[in-house]
Amino acid sequence: MSSYLLGERLNLLGKLGCALSVLGSTVLVIHSPEEQEVTTLEDMTSKLKDPGFIVYISILFVCCLVLIFFLSPRFGQTNILIYLAVCSLLGAFSVSSVKGLGIAVKGLLTGLPVYQHPLPWILIPILIISVVTQVNYLNKSLDTFNTSLVFPIYYVLFTTVVITTSLILFKEWVSMSPFDGVGAVCGFLIIILGVFMLHAFNNLDISLKSLQQQFKTFAPVTEESKEDTIAETTKAKTKKEDKITLIDNMETENSGGIPKVFVIYT
């Protein structure tokens, strides 16, 4: 869309990488396990208090701090993955908060006193801070880099982080079959290949028209083309010899000091 609406350019390998990224994300979503049903704030609280999820979310939080305060000021203007990594990692906080607040809103509509539970009041500021920070760094990325590169990479990274967070939070990997596990791994590898092609070859001037020209250049030479080439070479050589003979005749006739007029018959 940005190539047509904003006039930004994406080469052939970039378009192929974009298609592979979307395909890999689709395969990953298809083979991801079904989400466990969590209906009460107590169940959501117990999920959030799980030691495995606490370790996972703590690692993401530390990575976000490193990206924001150390890597972003130094490499944010040159590396597209810095800003987008911040947005994607914060997606784990925003999606988890939305899940908990969704349960709270559902309970509030059914008449439950959810406002007395501390979890919604903890998740609201987390959601606001994470969403505001995501929008801020996404705007920085859009202002700095090509839109055709930003959205596919952001989509892939965000989808990967969200699915990983869901697997750890709800322990969905326990119910995965071997077929779904292999499909999810294949989808993730396709995503990596697509992002690599999109990011590594974005500066190359490769298009379908240029490839067709290259194929024409290396096309096999037929007998007819050989004969045409020989005829054109012979004709050009004959014209060159006629010009040299004409110049020699002019020098010979003018050597006597008396200019002469001559006529060329064709």
Structural notes for this entry:
Helices cover 76% and strands 0% of the residues. It has 266 residues and is an all-alpha fold. The longest helix has 31 residues. Its main location: membrane. It is a multi-pass membrane protein. This is Magnesium transporter NIPA4. One of its GO terms (cellular component) is membrane.
Features:
elongated, 10 helices, mainly alpha, 266 residues
Share of residues in helices:
over 70%
* Cα Rg: 34 Å
List low-confidence stretches. Answer: none
Instruction: Give the mean pLDDT.
Output: 77
Shape: elongated
Count of separate structural domains: 1
Count of helical regions: 10
Protein structure class: mainly alpha
β-sheet strand percentage: under 5%
| SSE series | HHHHHHHHHH
Oligomeric description of these chains: single chain
Secondary structure tally: strands: 0
Distance between the termini: 62 Å
Q: Biggest β-sheet: count, sense, barrel?
A: none
Family: Belongs to the NIPA family.
Pfam families: Mg_trans_NIPA
Keywords: Membrane, Transmembrane, Transmembrane helix
Organism: Aquarana catesbeiana
Write a brief structural summary.
The protein is mainly α and 266 residues long. It has helices spanning 2-5, 12-30, 41-48, 51-75, 80-109, 118-144, 147-170, 178-200, 208-217, 223-253.
Please render the helix and strand layout as text.
Layout: H1 2-5, H2 12-30, H3 41-48, H4 51-75, H5 80-109, H6 118-144, H7 147-170, H8 178-200, H9 208-217, H10 223-253
Helix pairs in contact: 2-7, 2-8, 4-5, 5-6, 5-7, 7-8
Organism: Aquarana catesbeiana (American bullfrog)
InterPro entries: Mg_trans_NIPA
Family: Belongs to the NIPA family.
